[in-house]
Design a protein that fits this description.
Layout: H1 6-10, H2 19-36, E1 42-48, H3 49-54, H4 60-68, H5 81-88, E2 91-96, E3 106-112, E4 117-126, E5 129-135, E6 138-142, E7 148-154, H6 159-169, E8 174-181, E9 187-194, H7 200-207, E10 213-219
Parallel strand pairs: 1-2
Antiparallel strand pairs: 1-3, 3-4, 4-5, 5-6, 7-9, 7-10, 8-9
Helix pairs in contact: 2-4
């Protein structure tokens, strides 16, 4: 993870007390909400490492709840995120867990909406920066700092060539691309990061012509 200025180390404009334990979790929750693509009905947070030991004192629980409800790092309502969740009927619970060999500030989220679910593991790396480590059981790596396109698809020869050709025709430059699959010919996730904002409606019209494609989602940290 690269820092380009001292301001990134200090952290973003935020409600405190901590860029690692408050601002980062807000962004993690917000990314999970974006990937769900609908209002969350319930969420299960599993916290490891220092998150598990200090989450109540540092407001990490409220920050995660705030992000999953769409709040940003500077929202004054973060401190009341639990009250807002109760008013909306959002069910939630926190649990300490050993998630494996990840950064100490790591959380696993299982988020359910009316028609969709998202399973995500993400870490808060300091200065408000975050990184998604797993998505729906597959290892991925993206921060959401750049406009990010997530494609769920079937692993077949020629898929990436067709995707890159369509993206080029729409004027997109791929800054970074990763693909992970469960097995050859099985379920896969491709993550594309871009240099400019994503026009989702326009992209969907083109990409949905690819028969192997199952779902299209967009994420960007806020």
């Amino acid at each position: 993870m690269k820092y380009h200025s001292a301001f990134e180390i200090i952290g973003p404009v935020m409600v405190g007390p901590s860029s690692s334990h408050t601002a980062g979790p807000v962004r993690i929750g917000n990314l999970a909400r974006q990937l769900l693509v609908e209002e969350p009905c319930s969420v299960h947070f599993q916290l490891m490492g220092s998150f598990a030991e200090t989450y109540q004192g540092h407001g990490t629980d409220l920050a995660l709840l705030a992000g999953i409800q769409g709040m940003t790092t500077d929202d004054p309502e973060i401190a009341s995120a639990d009250q807002h969740a109760q008013e909306k009927g959002l069910e939630y619970r926190f649990q300490k867990a050993n998630l494996g060999f990840f950064h100490p500030n790591t959380v696993a989220l299982h988020v359910e909406g009316k028609t969709r679910t998202v399973d995500m593991i993400a870490s808060s790396l300091g200065g408000g920066k975050v990184e998604v480590q797993e998505l729906d059981g597959l290892p991925v790596r993206f921060t959401g700092e750049n406009p990010t396109l997530i494609l769920n698809h079937i692993d077949q020869q020629g898929f990436l060539a067709r995707v890159s050709s369509l993206l080029e025709s729409q004027g997109y430059n791929i800054a970074r691309l990763t693909l992970e699959r469960r097995k050859r010919g099985g379920e896969a996730i491709t993550v594309c990061e871009f240099d400019r904002a994503i026009q989702l409606a326009q992209l969907k019209e083109c990409l949905l012509l690819i028969p192997q494609l199952r779902d299209i989602r967009v994420a960007q940290a806020v």
